[in-house]
Each structure stands twice: as C-alpha cells, then as structure tokens.
Amino acid sequence: MQLTARQGIYLAALLHDIGKFWQRATKSRKVLPQEVLNLEGDLCPKSNQGHASHIHVLFTYAFFIKHSNILPESFEIDGEQVGIARLSARHHRRDLSTSERIIMFADRLSSGQDRREDEEPDDPGQGSSMNYKYKKIPLLNVFDAVYRIRPKKERSYFPLKPLVIDASVFPEVIEQLDESRESDYAELWDGFENEFRKLPTGTASVFIQSLDHLLRKYTWCIPSATNSMPDVSLYDHLKTTAVIADCLFDTRDQNPLPDSFENLEKEKSSRFTLLAGDFSGIQKFIYQISSKGAAKTLKGRSFFVGLLQDAIIDKLLSVYDLMPSHVLMKSGGRFQLLLPNDEDKFEAVMDFIQEANLALREQYDGVLYLATGSVDFEAEKFMENGAYSEMVGVAYRNIEADKSRRFARAINAEFFMPGKVKGTKAVQVCHVTGVDLDEKEAEILGDADSEVYISKVVKDQMDLGRRLKGAKFVVKVVGSYGFSPLAGFMKKSYPGDEVSYLIYDDFGTVELKKLQDRNLRVLEVISLNDTDFLDENSHEADIARGFQFYGAAWIPDDVTDNGDGRAVEFTDIASDEVNDLMAVVRMDVDNLGALFRDGFVINTKGAEEEHFGSISRYSTLSNHLDWYFSGYMHHLFSKHFDAKSSLDETFTAPNIRGDKPSNHILPVYAGGDDVFLLTRWDMAHQVAKKIYDDLKRFTNRHERVSISGGLHMVHGKYPIHKAASDAEESEKMAKKLPDATGKAAKDALCIYGLPLDWNDVELTTDL
Question: 499 forms bridges with which residues in the sheet?
Fold first, then answer.
C-alpha cells in the first residue's frame, strides 16, 4: 500500500494516540519489544521530575511495527522518506521536524483550551497517588459537563464496549472510580486488532476510510485523556486531529508553517474554512406526495434526501481531494465541513453549489435549496475561550442570510427568462409533483389501466422506498446502474463519474461478482445500523467498508389480515378495526443551538467563567446525539416495540397486527436531534414518552436537555402533507407551554391541541 504525502500525514495523525488504547489494555510497557523500549529517549519527552513521560507514544510506535504487514513503513514528502511510525509517535517532543510539527500542532489544536500538559502517570514506580488512573476512568457522559460540572458522585460513564445501537451502551452513574478496567480494555483491544487485520488494504484511501469506521466502533467509549475532564472520546480526538493535520499540510505551501506552536497561535492568516450547509424545503419536498402508494413514497423521498446530501458532499470534498472525515457533522439535511483555506478551491465549491441549486430548482420546482454559510479563521481560534463556538455561530448566521436571498449568486438576465415548457408535447402531469411530463418522462403509477402518471424520478423514489424494507446494505458504485441522486445534474459543468446507490438485504461475494460482471466499480459497502461491517473477505477487495445509522429504517411487516402481501400503507398503521385513526408525531430537542453555543461555558463558584468548547468536544457531543436519534431510534422502533409487553400494562386496545406494536409504527425521519413518525393513535403517547424517557436517561437526566413534540390525530387516508403541517403546529404549541413564571418552558408534548408537561403525559396512556 503506497501513501501520498497527504495520506501519510493524515494516517500518522489518525493513529497518533492509538498507543493510549493499547497501553490501557496491558500490565506495563514491558510487553513492548526491546527495540521499541530503546527509543524512549527519542520518542518520549522528559517530565519535570526528569523521567520519561507520555509513555503511550511507545505503544503508538510499537503498533506500527507490529502491523508492518498492513501499515506502510514510510512515504515521501518534499523529496525525503519519512518513517510513519516515528512521525506519529513524536508529537509530544519539542525537537521536531517540519512534518512532525504538523502532527503536534494538530494534536494541540484538536484539544484546544482543554489541553493539559501534565501527563497521566504511566508506571507505579513514579511515586504518585494517581497511579494507573488512566485505567480506572471510563468515558464521562459529555452531558455531565454541559452548562455545569456535575458532582462526582452523580456523574455517569459509558461502558467499555464496541459501539452498538441498543441500550447496553447507555451511560450509568458510578460513584467511585477505584477499580482498574484493564480487563475490559484488553477485551476491547483484542476485538480491535482482530478486525484491524480485516481492513481492505488495496489502496490507501480505501484503507483509511475503512479505518475511520473501525476506530469509531472501538474508541468511541475511551476517554482521550483522564488528567482533565474525561468526556472527549478518543475517536473524536483522533478524527479531528487528522482533519486539522490535513488542513495544515494543505496550506503549508502558500503559508509556511511556523517553527513553534506559540508562533502558530500568533498567526493572523486564516488556515481553516468552516463550511456549513442546510437543505431547506425538505419537509415540503418529502410530503409533496399523493395518497396512492403514500407510505413507500414517503420513505423513499425521505431516504432520497439523505443520498442527495451524501452525493453533494462527496462532490464538495472531491474539489479539495479530502477524506470523508472532513465532515464534522452530517444529519437531518445539515452538515459541517472543515476545509483548508484555499480561495480558488472554495470558489469552485461555491460554483458547484450554485449549479446544484439551479438543477434542484429546475427538477423540483424550487422546493429544495442548499443554503450555505462559511467562515475563515486562523489557528488561534481553536485555542481561545469560546472562539471556535463563535466560528460555528458565524457560519450558521450566514446560512440564514443565504436562505433570505436564495439564488443570489445565480441572478442575472438569463435567470429571469421563462423556462422551457412542454407545451403540446406534455402528455401528462406528474401526480406527485405537478410537473408537466412528456411521453419519455411519464410513468404509470399502479397497473396498466391506471390513469395516474408520475415522473421517472418520482418512480425511482417510490422504488427506493419499497427496497428499504429489510435493507441492510447501501452499496456505492460508479455508473448509472442503481439509484443516482445526481442523475442528470450538472453533467455539463461537472462531468465526473456518476455515482449510484444500490440497496441490498444481503451483500457478499456473489452480489459483488454480479456487479463486477457488469463492469461496475464498487466504491463502498455501507452496513445499515450494524457496526459489524467487516467480514473475513473484506481485506481481499479494494472496496471501502463502513457503517451508517439510519433511524427511519424500520418498515412494518407487509402481511395484512387477509395475507395478500401488499406493501404497508397508512391505513395499516392506523388499523385497529374500531377507530382506524393514526397519530402523526413530531419531536425535537429544545434549544439545541443554545446547547452548542453556550453548553461548554461553565460558571464555577468563586472562579471566572471557563470555556471547554474544543472542536473534539463538539464532535463528541454531535456523535452522541447522532447515535441516539439515528441509531438508537431504529432499535426502539424495530426491536423494543416488537411485543405487546413493551406497552404499558394498561394498554388493552385490540387488534395489534401480528401481535407486534412495531407493525403500527412507521418512522419517516429520525436523526440529528428530531424524530417524525406515524403510529396508531392509541400507541402514540407511549411511543413519544419512551423516546423522551430514554433521552433523559441517556443525558443522565440533565435538567436543561429536553425534547418537545406534537401529536395530531388523523384518518389513515388523510392527506399526509396536511397532517405533517398540523403536527408541526402542535409541536410549536408544546414549545410555548409556560412554566411557573410565565416563560416558555418547552419540555412538553402537545396532545391533539393540549400542551402537557411530560410529567402529565403519564395520565394519557390509558385512554
């Protein structure tokens, strides 16, 4: 496996602290080979007491040596061969080469103002009462460190387990952290190393992309440091360090790196660009559907938006030639990218976004629009109290400004010219979108005798919704075989390879061979809601592997009472053979913007205000929320509610299809910080309350982290776009519920027009 200079820097940064993981799983440094121990003086800095410190770097170096059959030994940069193990391990030294300074700079910028130079004692011989502290402290729940630092006896911690999407990885309160977790670390480390050997190694880009997913699976629960607030995961620190190092490397030609970190902080030139995006009009787009085939159309259009977002982000990253890890956040039609500051490339990105918006305007009549906002900033912003949070705020304020002046970049005389119309060539109107269709574009919805027509794009989206039933894999291929969210978009201006997505309930060597026989190049195989994404043959193919959480993946069983096997419809969700009513449920986290803006500004008694908002801490918070709303929601809908026992014992309503309450739950969207679902009217209160209760448990019952929602009851044949709008109004009413002082307290559920505090929702379960 050959590395380019950029890939070498990125990989060295991504694994720079992997030694912390290995060190915590072992008795002492004596497990390392003597050739590595002999490098202590070259790799480890000296402490104030004169002994070697930061011993974890020896384990980092040893990891590269141990897996030299997988990891390259060196790569070339500026005409010199650089050893990647040494480059990765020397980030705490002061006598550094230019390449080594990139890793050190990135490591410190990732930690931001949280950086603590005091190292955790490594060996019992150092005479400290803190011996092996780093083996005793698991990852602190980040919600225990927002708005205030929770007292020690009340803090909750995550278990040392590989990432899954059930409640087994929920944090639990631990009053005393006095037991070593070395055996838990050892088991976790063995699992990591076993799967590390399964990673595809054909090309560096495929290997690194797959490695990022493996690191998330195994290091999400490990604190990156225990000598300060241990709420930042090792994964988020590794990822953000690699992304920052990539940006520093990219900008070094036009702006040479300084010789010290102190001088880097003094720089006035911007090395970084934060680009944020937000697709507006998603709800209108999703619910712009007819009643015929509505359930699968709704699911298909919802999933389509996610694919469209992925495809556009891939194009943006390709302009800079960046890895997917540069996506700091991606959920709910919103995303954040950390990019190297480059005016020419950024202008190309903005041109692409303009082309994309014009294409979306033409194809979807202006319903969908990608609003963007950006901010350039210098390295010191990672270190200043609250500065990075302010940069995020600036980017989002610019998004709002962009929404208020849609297509401003594209406005010219041609923009106002009448678009092409089908005229006499129009044979039908799309039943879903209302767009004129010519003969080549018209598809019949239903049987051949149907007089209902839809466009090919809408037909594809309906097929996508149908394929999602039981879907376990999303496969990205180069070519027009499958579902192409950018099909026909921007081909004249951006004629790059067309990427299509295929949906599978199983994907192995047989399915891969079929695609290869069609001369299709497979780019990536993504496991949906399953973090066991590698198999015994993964290393043999040059195909990126990964996993993705999709909270709305659940689709109720197709079999109805008469066993005709037709696709599930809204009437099936509503069916109880008594009232046949359905509840539309919308919920989202209250004051999420304030949480990210002010949550890490801590006021401690008798001390000045402290800011803990490092980029790695924001990344940890974002990933935790994504796990809950994208991953855990799927577990709730598909597993928790699969038996009547999941409902309150007072629930006596008849006729649960297949005796599974989950057959009356159809999630439309779950991700980011919000949920939209359809369920039977008499189950809605309990489903909403379960989402609320588990969120409170997940956040250790944080008094300032809450969720509000609205329920609206309709018949199964009621127009879904109107039902969604009604539920939105109910949610707004919930967020206006006043507290004792008359202020909007939020933290409520509006049930069919009546806002209730969650404590009162219990009274509604027996209706």
Answer: 478
